[in-house]
């Protein structure tokens, strides 16, 4: 029993306040380390984690059908050029086929968004690889692969939109206000990337075992093949010939004997392919092949293209098919369901290199060499070889014809070829009433113009 | 439960009673500032003042007056002079207290003797005199110490008084009687001994099944000190005890707006307390169940497997039967204790507690429901006419490509899809029971509830809900209480994978079954979706919820220590099967399965300490506490999967963590029970913010002034009966941003990725380390007046909230690789509003009792500031000086009867409709909302009716439908039928019609006009409504009936209707949903029986 001095209680209060201010500190909210489950910390901390990030590129590219690297690259330019025509009545598709795109077209937006999403991912991976935790050998290879990804993406973007914003860094604020860069600058960045990739990447193709598809990562030959393509587009004929030559004549890269086996995942003609998701069917197969025997395919090959096949061309039987109601559709890929990766998605194949060299040699004056390369392709197609003694003009037009057939409905080659050879107006004009010269470039999506005030629309939109 | 208090001990009692806890977040019995001060306990004795200021601790049984005098003389300077004849050894007393005044101690020791105390300087003389207690002051309280008015106190035959509105009465002693009988309607009567007392507090145990609880809730005493809370009057609890939280959370009172988005059982609802505080997204309140922060996020993860996209809310799936009341905290002062968690308001859900000596009760309820309102669709002929007319307008000849519905299909066939989708009555069965017992210091309560509810859609998929509840309370002594509560809920939901409401727009002539009743997918060569196929889709969601909570309270003297903690866990397993037979066989389909498993666990721990003291007329309480909340989410779901049977860890496995901690200090003061002042400072730390900005300091202050109180003993008919004013101000911060926003997030690629890429990751969000707290400044002032003998009460509140540093998704161009990034914008959103409530209580002595309560809120929202709006992505979304919903529209001028097109006002007169003609600013949204509840009681009969009303402008539901499928055209998914409203369309010159001429071409003039129409004043509708939300008629069986059956029980039968009717000018669909694409609300009628032993 003591007298309670109530004033003593204030001291308790002060003590209590002190305790609270000490314990109410940030340690109470520090999050537990859950390894690589969700937080960025821990990424690029080991070789495997760096590989996971690069695998993310491969997976993301094939994640959804109809995106930039999964279908869109063949379907939309195919329609814009003189290759494909939609059989249904979807306005957004018709607008491609009629060359009357609007900036509100949702597919244009999809192409643009998924392209830059991929480029941003490449840039973030490159930034991550800049750390010190990945072994030099792995880091070198992965950086080389990233450069190839970025270069192919910009190459395709230039073919669709003309001058495009060049994103190479990861700062969101900077990237949000980018203006378009002139194509020349973008091309020079592509060449820098590819030259770097050439020096960073190994030259071997690791054969895949039975369950694992091979040639799914770009290597030195992919970098050089892409360089050859870019030099061709830039009309640097000597460089184009040199690059293509360095790729051609390798024992592990040869043309398949039969056109039927060109797109199988085991094909030795393939330089780089991507593995589809799900049931192992790529988006082109899903879009081009009809869902059932009696159903209409979504896209029909235009008669002008069908008529361009020479009689006896084995590729016509192998790469086109006809449904019960007589609609002819692309048949390069043949598996629409349950593919089990028998076919993957071919990003680049050797035949194009022969055609690049043929064209370059034509301009370089080596007509015999050009005819030689063309005949390599024609032989496989079951066509008679071209005779020597053709004029340069004849050789070049033979190259054009061969490119049109060999690379039909594939990665928009026809669309880019029409534009770079100046034939777009003369060929597409008569074919499509709505054609305007400005239709050679796609519009920038209206939504993007709203979001990036420095972006300027292409003329005609 | 009777608390006996001698007059001397009152000081201590007062201190405990006014203890306002510094932090209530995890308080098991969320006590809300029930300040009680039994009036007149301290006898006014000027001489005794000094004795009242000296405090002393006592601890002992059988203390005689001599012992007490010895102790006082030993520890104080006082000396005693005791007149002979006063017994020093008789009447021993028991005293256990650490802070009793000398006066109080003496008063206890002398209470049975006729002794007068005289104090002069340091001398205390005890002289024989008259008895101290000629009368006893009686104070009757109910649950949470709410004073009970009208309790009858009977001492001797013919000697009865009633308590006044303060629960107070003075009982004159009668020789020979010392036991007082206390009766109160709705409570068990008690008999207590008042021998030798001069005052007593009697706690009545109220039977929770009777309406009188509500009367008490409305009584003035509780209101007079409540500053910001709404206590929801829970009609659903007391009478039918049926339904889920989804039913209980609608109509929470002034300032709390609840909007149901969908009629599917278990679907979530939006609750806004005093407006939306963010520019983008909902700002849901914090839900507290039994002191635990409840996880209320949507648990649906399968892309289209969750109640039409609204998500399954674990909160909506909790059984209503275990809930006793719902409190809504709105103002800055009462929210201060919740810090960042409660910045959008707090909804406190309290569950049943065992406070009585044991009971057993049952309730059964069954009924059936139909849609409230729905669309009248065209029949096959009307549809065919519409299509033909549209094609004719476009000069198109129907053929198999452009009009398979007219050319290939049998146009005389008429499937009433409306009837297919809403085939008839959806049944509901709800049953619950609860039992409690008391054994020594333990009380136990258990409850079980079961509910089986059918959707009104299709084949009535069912939602099963089972809830088990248990609580145990242990009170070892007066100073200590331990309570443990466990709620377990198990829900099985077999709803459809899609909201089938959309199927009613299916073309009425589409053939769906072939001659052998198999599903058709191609009709004459045209590939179609088969709407019946959706019925074959299987979806199941199994959600389990557990809430465990413990609380410990220890009150040594003026100190109070509280420890609270608990765990809330929700686990949901979902699975979908799209069988091959429900897919087009031409596509070589396989069975497709999707599954997802989500678990969210939250832990909470809190400790707080408070201390109360008195200084003159002031009573103070100071306290502080620390708390920490930890949430851990595990999501195992494929994002876009083909034939995944079970997602395995490593692919599509995401774990997120969230932690928030806070420390607070609070000071409360009370001056003479007239002025109450509270102040809180608090510091919150959140894991969502970058460490440099992790902490936010908030402050809040509140005050209530009872400026007029009816003097004791004055005329009951006094017109001006009482009044108070309150003021509250505070600044708080919100951390409502996604976890990890400040750092770059790489996520595991989800779904069926190629095996050789297993483990692939991708960057899922950009980093922004500049993110900081959203600041919300809240001010509210209000007054409450009690008039006309306290029977009528009027409350008016004005609130003014400024929400600053708005977090706005900064919409990024694709070149950044991301679509949005959160940024703090220099934007200020202002929410103001008036909240008005009127209540009328029933007269105690009238035979017909009528109680009525009307409340309404007039909210106003205004974007005060948005730095750089003109150059931002939001320049066409928001307008400064306008509410967020405000839009610029074309002025609609009707359908031109010559051309047949929609026409609009050409403001600039250039002959074209351009953006510059979009000049009319309109503000769709709610202007006023409220409710009106009336209760009538006559004898055994009770009638209760709750009306809900809203004054608002909304969009015609046709807007969404026209965007999907313009009238007259055939959409690729065949959802092309239209409401019969489209019969009123322009067909030929001179027609005056509501809708323009039809077209099928997307770029025709008519289609262009349709786009303008959708952005014109013509698409706005008055969506105000008045709804009979709940109507209950109940009959309490007369007790003697049951007694004849030898049953000692109360029983009641009732008939209840929900959403019985809706009066609205809004066309066809429900004005709250304003959509023809989501499941309508349910109108239901049920009967029930309730019995209690």
What do these coordinates show?
The complex is a heterodimer of chains A (461) and B (1093). Chain A is mainly alpha-helical and 461 residues long. Chain A has a domain at 19-280 and 342-347: Serine Threonine Protein Phosphatase 5, Tetratricopeptide repeat, CATH 1.25.40.390. Chain A is 49% helix and 5% strand. Chain A contains 19 helices and 6 strands. Chain A has helices at residues 9-23, 47-61, 72-80, 91-97, 106-129, 136-161, 172-175, 183-200, 220-233, 237-247, 283-288, 303-308, 314-319, 350-364, 367-380, 392-406, 413-420, 424-431, 446-451, and strands spanning 84-86, 270-274, 299-301, 320-322, 328-330, 345-349. In chain A, the strands form 3 sheets. A two-stranded antiparallel ribbon of chain A has the order 1-3. A two-stranded antiparallel ribbon of chain A has the order 2-6. Chain A has a two-stranded antiparallel sheet with strand order 4-5. The radius of gyration of chain A is 27 Å and the shape is globular. Chain B has 1093 residues and is mainly β. Chain B is built from 15 helices and 54 strands. Chain B has a 22-stranded antiparallel β-barrel. A 5-stranded mixed sheet of chain B has the order 14-19-20-17-18, with no helix packed on it. A 4-stranded mixed sheet of chain B has the order 1-13-7-10, with no helix packed on it. Chain B is elongated, with a radius of gyration of 34 Å. At the A-B interface, helix 1, helix 2, helix 5 and helix 19 of A face strand 2, strand 30, strand 31, strand 32 and strand 33 of B.
